[in-house]
Amino acid sequence: MSTDLDLTxxxxxxxSYSDANGGQxxxxxxxxxxxxxxxxxxxxxxxxxxTLIVSATGWSLFISTLIRGEFRAA
Length: 74
Known about the structure:
The chain is an alpha+beta fold. It has 2 helices and 4 strands.
């Protein structure tokens, strides 16, 4: 998988799990799933910072685990 994705056209969505007070803000973009089979993820407070690139399958499994309540912060 290439790490040189052009993310300038990414349409970012703030996670519904993000804190409404400006903390713990995670954004992701679905626009790459169809063409690159990846989901870029970033910290919305640092949009020019690093972006984590996750496989679409891995992202789906992660979200499913959150929804089922199987992942809990310590």
